[in-house]
Amino acid sequence: MTAARPIPLSNATLADLPEGIARPTYDRAGLTPGIVHIGLGNFHRAHQAWYTHRLMQQGLARDWAILGAGVRPYDAAMRDRLLAQDCLTTLIELSPDHRAAEVSGPMIDYLPIEPGNASLIAAMADPAIRIVALTVTEGGYYLDPVTGGLDTAHPDIRHDAAHPDTPRTAFGAMAAALRLRLAAGHGPFTGLTCDNLRGNGAILRQTVVGLARLTDPALADWIDRHGAFPNSMVDCIVPATGTAELALVRDFGVADDAPVTHEDFRQWVIEDAFCAGRPDWDRVGATFTADVHAYEMMKIRILNAGHQVLVGAAELLSVPTIADCMTHPRVAALFCKVQTEEILPHVAAVPGMTPPEYLSLIERRFANPAIRDTVRRVAFDGSSRHTGFVLPILRDGLAAGGPIEGLALVEALWARMCAGTREDGTVIEANDPQWAALTEVAASARTRPEAWLAQAAIYGDLAADSVFAPAFCRWLTRIWAQGAEAAIDAYLGG
To answer: Nearest 5 degrees, angle CA 334-CA 337-CA 343?
Structure first.
């Protein structure tokens, strides 16, 4: 499989790639754009872009090519890497017993990263663009931590309301482009979020319409009435790209500065509610449905919350990857007990899959040793992920009078993790947009555990709950006094 001289990836070298590497069979020069995707990282290229690529391999969707986009300065480095290789990406599928490489090519350009986002706005204002999709992380939707509505006090939102023609956010840019489309007599595009949020389409609608309403109520009404924001559920484990992944793609004989590794599983469930057409992604494995909610809840609660069950303990115990978590006796046992007793009771079945069956699937996927998905990546932005994934289950458990000791322990392990050191004394580097504030509160919580729960933006009224609050304080006190393993043993033996 190893080539002496890896071939630089580009349109001109596709025919020269080593045998066995799948590549576009369609004429990329004949593609025309129909999608702008904002937040173009590894997940998009391994998931949504792959579905579009697969349609193109069948001779379909030639007018649904993707324009990459970003609104943050750090997106410029990815833009440079991808433009240098004609926006091609090598996707490497890693299963426990085989590896396979495929070059994907549905993305045909990457828009400039610039203050005011003029190029992005102009592209989205073009009526040829019928979908604007996003992967901007769960914490990127400017949600008010108390009401769940748009956080109109956030400096970014205030800026975009004051400068609607030169916005700094993706949502401000979408509103600006929709204003131009309305003025030109064009219909709106569909806003399609691919982030792990419950009711993600409704949240995207709330953010775009709410921001537009701050400056142009008539525009907001038009977007709300004529636009479309489908809910969706996305699933594929896609590790970050580092030195190992760069070496792996070269082992395949390809010089690709932005390769993506991924597991041998994908799922995409989409509400069939588009206002300007859509690709037939269902022809290549996606599911269109009128009700995404049950799929979304199963995935977010078992997989995404499950990740958070693992990573607090894993960071403290210096367990490096999710696969390693599944072979660690205590961490794996914690995961199994919390899932079985405290998460699955609050998950409904979906067509063809019960919650226990889905948990078995997740356990197999998490245990895949070929996927070097780091605990650090999965633990990133815990302040959003615990709020969005774990605490809703905890609230359901409290409302039902069910067990919540394991989830209280999970929260205590996260609080201890945010103190910034592992139990072997090594430092946990900043890994949350709120890291400075979290570490400060975590230090106070060492002797006064209730200080952690006083973070109203995260816990709200849970700080006063007569069942959860004492359980959390008891677990955090035990972790600091006896260590994470002793606390987990106490939970497992309870």
So the answer is: 110
Residues 326 and 205 in one domain: no
pLDDT tens, 20-51? 999 999 999 999 999 999 999 999 999 999 99
- CA dist 164 and 219 (Å) reads 12
Q: Tell me how many domains the chain contains.
A: 2
pTM: 0.90
Say how far apart CA 163 and CA 225 lie, in whole Å.
24
Residues 405 and 269 placed together within one structural domain of the fold:
no
Same domain membership, residue 441 and residue 368? yes
C-alpha torsion angle, residues 414, 72, 42, 288 (rounded to 10) = 90
Helices within 130-281 (DSSP H only): 155-162, 170-183, 200-213, 217-226, 243-251
Quote the tokens at residue 231. 């809910």
Neighbours of 116 (CB within 10 A): 15
Residue 226 and residue 179 share a domain: yes
142 and 240 in a common domain: yes
Range of the domain at 372: 293-492
